Each structure stands twice: as C-alpha cells, then as structure tokens.
Amino acid sequence: LADMGQTFARWMQLFPNIARVIGYAAMALLGFAAAGAIANIVLGVSKLIKLGAIALWKTLTSVTKIYTATVWIASKAVAAWNLTLKFLRGTLLAVRMAAIMAGIGINLMSWPVLLVIGAIGLLAAGCYLLIKHWDDVQAAVMNTAAFTAVA
C-alpha cells in the first residue's frame, strides 16, 4: 500500500494534467457521495416527520371515527325507540278500547238499575206534585161526569 502511494505521488509529478483530471474525477465522485449522503439525511428526516404526521393523522381520524360510530349507534337507538313507541301505541290503543268496552258493558248492565231508580224518582216527583196541587186536581176530578156518576 505504501509503494502504491509512492508510485501515485511520482505520477502526479510526472503527469500533472492527468493528476488534475483524476483529482477532478475524485472530487466529482466525493461530491456525488456527499449529495447522496445529504439526500439520505433529508429522506430520513422526512420519513421521521412523516411518521409523526401519520401518528397525528391517525389520532385525529380516530376522533372522527369515534364520532361516526356514536352517530351510528344513536341512529340505531332512535330506530329502536321508534319501534318501541309503535308497539306501545298499539298496546295503549288496545287497552283504551278494552276500557271503553268495559265502560259500555258496565253502563249496559246498570240500565235496569237506573230505570228502577228513575221510576222511583218519577213516582216521588209525581207524589210531590200531586200533594202540592191537590186542590186543583180534586176540583178538576170532581167536576167530571164520570166522577159524578160514581159518587
């Protein structure tokens, strides 16, 4: 390796133009290597930033996904509530019809009792009116031909 370095130094003395071109080529090669290293660093940093951005994006989209799931669950709960209310409406209508029919049945069963009570009330009212207007009734009955024939 040392002999090769001495040979190279001697050629640089003997052929300065070739040495300059080789130097330029070496510098170009080192420049490409430096550009590649810089590109590698930039790509690494950008990948690191991208990973951070992806983590942030996933966090933010998870909030949106949770909200979407909440809205979906709420819509299903509202649909279940509406179904329950439809069932409850039918049930309450059936209970209402049963109560009305029971009222009609009780009313129909109580008609004879009400008729007897009404007849007693009318008889009492008739007796009251007869006692109150007894003189007028007696005078009207006494002045008839039928009562005169019987009396």
From TrEMBL:
UniProt keyword annotations, A-Z: Membrane, Transmembrane, Transmembrane helix
Transmembrane segments: 21-43, 55-75, 87-106, 112-131
Domain of life of the native organism: Bacteria
Protein name: Phage tail tape measure protein
Organism of derivation: Salmonella newport
